[in-house]
Design goal:
Elements lengths: L5 H15 L1 E3 H8 L3 H13 L4 E3 L2 E3 L12 H5 L3 H12 L7 E4 L3 H10 L6 E4 L2 H9 L6 E4 L3 E2 L5 E2 L1 H7 L4 E7 L2 E3 L3 E4 L2 H12 L1 E7 L11 E4 L6 E5 L4 H8 L4 E5 L1
Parallel strand pairs: 4-5, 4-9, 5-6, 9-12, 12-14, 14-15
Antiparallel strand pairs: 1-3, 2-3, 7-8, 10-11, 11-13
Helix pairs in contact: 2-3, 5-6, 6-7
Length: 260
């Protein structure tokens, strides 16, 4: 067998997992012609990317729709890219030079970060290493980035006591909040308990809270709620949001922006 590059090997592992629902380390090692240790490292990476869940002796696909499922950043970033880009552009229009902003970890906020690079004298506080890197790669004049510390989650957020301690002393003009889901009854939610804690503090320590979420997030409820819709000043979403939902949301949120 020809030696495969790590990316090719992981693609085959993922293909087989999707076909069978679950895989065993020993079987993969035999099929791929590599050691079980190599397979375990590949499974660790795929699990970190949110592509599958590790179990004893192998891996399985995540159960779709589970409130406790925490999709990885790479898997989420491939979904609804056009809507996320439109939402990001509209949200960036709310920012003026010289502002301070909180930007939590997420794929829509990652798209927003790329738009915010054009804003001068902007101070960005984030708990996402990927978002921090966006500004480091192409900084705007006068801008600065403050990155929180903590433990990294599958969705690429830094959470835990270090992040909380940092946020206790910080305040921002605007908080841009990406969410796992938003719902009339459940409000804003996430599958990760520690991420819920940090997200709540982001909103509490900002003068204005802006949720950025494509319409597919509507009606999705994660295991941990962290804020009711009433604390949100602006919701930026896309035209896929149903009219019935728009009417309900406008009763609870000050401004709802739907973009094409």
């Amino acid at each position: 067998m020809i030696d495969l590059l790590p990316a090719e090997r992981r693609a085959r592992i993922l293909e087989q997992t999707r076909a069978q629902g679950s895989v065993r380390v020993a079987d993969l090692a035999q099929v791929l012609g590599v050691s079980e240790m190599t397979v375990r490292r590949d499974l660790d990476q795929l699990a970190s990317d949110g592509e599958l869940h590790k179990v004893h002796g192998g891996a399985r696909l995540a159960a779709p729709g589970s409130a406790s499922e925490e999709p990885g950043f790479l898997r989420k970033s491939r979904l609804h890219q056009g809507q996320k880009s439109a939402v990001a552009k509209a949200a960036a229009a709310l920012v003026e030079p010289g502002m301070s902003v909180f930007v939590n970890s997420g794929t829509t906020t990652f798209a927003l970060a790329r738009e915010l690079r054009a804003v001068e004298d902007l101070t960005v506080v984030t708990n996402s290493p990927r978002i921090a890197q966006v500004f480091e790669d192409r900084p705007a004049p006068g801008g600065q980035v403050v990155m929180l510390g903590g433990v990294r989650t599958p969705s690429d957020a830094l959470v835990g006591p270090l992040a909380v301690r940092c946020l206790e002393t910080l305040h921002a003009d605007v908080c841009f909040m990406g969410v796992h889901g938003f719902d009339i009854e459940a409000g804003l939610s996430t599958p990760n308990m520690l991420e819920a804690q940090v997200n709540r503090m982001f909103l509490e320590h900002a003068n204005r809270g802006v949720v950025v979420a494509d319409a597919t997030k509507w009606g999705t409820v994660g295991l941990y709620g962290f804020a009711p819709l009433e604390v949100v000043d602006d919701l930026v979403t896309d035209t896929g949001l149903p009219e019935s939902a728009l009417n309900e949301l406008e009763e609870r949120i000050t401004r709802v922006h739907r973009v094409a």
